[in-house]
Amino acid sequence: MKTQSPPAITQTKVLRRAAVTALAAALLAGAAVSAPRVAAADSSAAVPKAAAGQDRPELQKATQAFVDAGFAGVQVRVHDEQGEWVGSAGVRKLGQSAKPPTNGSFWAGSIIKTVTATLVLQLVAEGNIGLDAPVAGYLPEFGLDRRITVRMLLQHTSGLFNYTGDFDPNGTYVPGISATGKEWLDNRFRSYRPEELVRLALSKPPRFEPGTDQKYTNTNYTLALLLIEKVTGRSYAEEMQRRILRPLKMRGTMVAGNRTQLPGPHAHGYYRYEDAGQQKVVDISRQNLSLLAGAGDLISTTHDLARFVSALNGGKLLPAKLLSEMRKPHPKMGYGLGLFVQDLGPDCGTVFQHNGSPPHGYGAFMYSSPDGSKTLTASVTWVDEATRGPAKDFQKLLDGLVKEVFCGGQTAD
């Protein structure tokens, strides 16, 4: 049966064109890496005993497919009517045989946008922020266009320039802070302040009039971070801990800030480039994500992301009215307020998702059924290329895994 083109594909096109650092753009740069076959679910992971003993060959196969296509490693967690399953494939580190930990930490990138949007909407629910109020009323120091509302930030309809680079309406690329290539590699430990990122973006003309179009832009969510801090009088990290991480016992999740090292067991991501005619591969498991404040600087685990997205869609974090607003997609990208709304077809229904990645080497998936009872969370690592060339099988692999979980493995006719 044919399905509609999912918004995730639109997301990929948008992110690649705008050179932003989110998963759908970054994951299209896989490189061939040999690795062992997938092992059964890792019994050392902190999951129920029933999960460790489950035999889910269809999930193992869909997980292994990423490695067969060239990704270095992958860890997957599924919660559905059969219980919880965890598994991994590939290698934790190039040149070694150990597979990725099934609940290892990873750079989760733009998945933090869903968390940021949730924090803003909680403040809306409390009457501290107006969803359709001008952002300039809360952050007057930036001289923002007063037509830009809080909703527009969360929906990517503000028209603001993307500080990691953007395109003019005529297609001319306008550089920002480099998030690609050798320039990024050489500066990957540099620290940035959110205000610095926003002021760079505001030094460029807007891409379109507020509310007239939609374009995925990191600037929107860095402004949302500053909005949260201004209204609450506390740091963004403190608010996330107080409102989401502590109540949900998400002990493996944190705002990366200026932290450059992943905590605990983790898989390694890589970057390949050419220097003086020689191919070089660099381990980039250490990097500074302050470049993407509030928009991509998240460290998490598959366990924690599953807790979060299940609680969110299960109505535990937002009032029903605001959750409905969050899940109302704009027609251009299928993006609501911090969530993509993806139609898998009449026999599978709708999933709510947000994927993410730092600039290179890592990627993360987060999918949920409308009621939060079925979730898919995962992380992949790979050897990224300086050319950012597309991996021809990526979208097929992701669709295959998503449909295995949410559609019982059926594929489009």
Strand and helix layout:
Elements: H1 7-18, H2 23-26, H3 49-52, H4 57-68, E1 73-80, E2 83-90, E3 106-107, H5 112-125, H6 150-155, E4 166-167, E5 173-174, H7 181-186, H8 194-202, H9 218-232, H10 236-245, E6 254-255, E7 270-275, E8 278-283, E9 298-300, H11 302-313, H12 320-326, E10 340-343, E11 350-353, E12 362-368, E13 375-381, E14 383-385, H13 394-406
Helix pairs in contact: 4-13, 5-9, 8-9
* Overall average pLDDT: 86
Which residues form runs of ≥5 with pLDDT under 50? 1-53
Count of discrete alpha- or pi-helical segments spanning 4 or more residues:
13
Q: What is the CATH superfamily label?
A: DD-peptidase/beta-lactamase superfamily
Q: What does the largest sheet look like? A: 6 strands, antiparallel
Kindly report the CATH topology.
Beta-lactamase
CATH C-level name: Alpha Beta
Backbone shape: globular
How many domains would you count in the coordinates? 1
Percentage of β-strand residues: 15-25%
Largest sheet, order of strands side by side? 2-1-13-12-11-10
Structural class estimated from helices and strands: alpha+beta
Q: Which range best describes the helical content: under 10%, 10-25%, 25-40%, 40-55%, 55-70% or over 70%? A: 25-40%
How many E strands?
14
Instruction: Give the second-level CATH assignment, the architecture.
Output: 3-Layer(aba) Sandwich
Q: CA-to-CA gap between the ends?
A: 4 Å
H-E string: HHHHEEEHHEEHHHHEEEEHHEEEEEH
- Radius of gyration, CA atoms, in whole angstroms: 20 Å
